[in-house]
Amino acid sequence: MKQLGWFYSVYLPIKTYEKHWILKGFSYSWGSDTNLFTLMKMTSPPPRRSGPLASGMTLIELTVVILVLLALISTLFIGARAWKRGSDRAGSIMNIRKVQQAVRSFANLSAFNPGQNIAPINLQNALIGVGQFVESTPECPGSGSYTFGGNVIPATGTLYMNCDLAVSDEHVPGEISAW
Known about the structure:
Blueprint: E1 2-4, E2 7-13, E3 19-23, E4 26-30, E5 36-42, H1 59-110, H2 123-127, E6 146-148, E7 161-163
């Protein structure tokens, strides 16, 4: 019997077929090629790390964890930016819709027709202000600015108020034919 690493090995000549199994800490095997019986028993487990980092992470493991966290955080910021752009677009479309409804309500209540110029009356002042159809001047949530259509009641399907971010950030409703 001789010690090899952290187990013992014993060789005995045996004529039989190849087989291998482990039982109660011993490993037994024999084979027809070598005609030897091997008995191995572990004497001690492999050496463990000692010191303050014995149960810690290696530098490579820590680097991988940091890289995964950075990837997740960057994905979060990209998603948040897309959500903010979508939210700004929806808010701008709601402002345009509110003013368009105010124009149609004012025209119906005052008996004005689409395309009619109401020159003595400032249409923007008649629509927006305290006690009017829209209480305060709308502001684009995406830091754009709105332009108003003057004193002409717009035809159906034409917007009275437009956002300057209509092209770049799509601050315009998709379907306005019934507006």
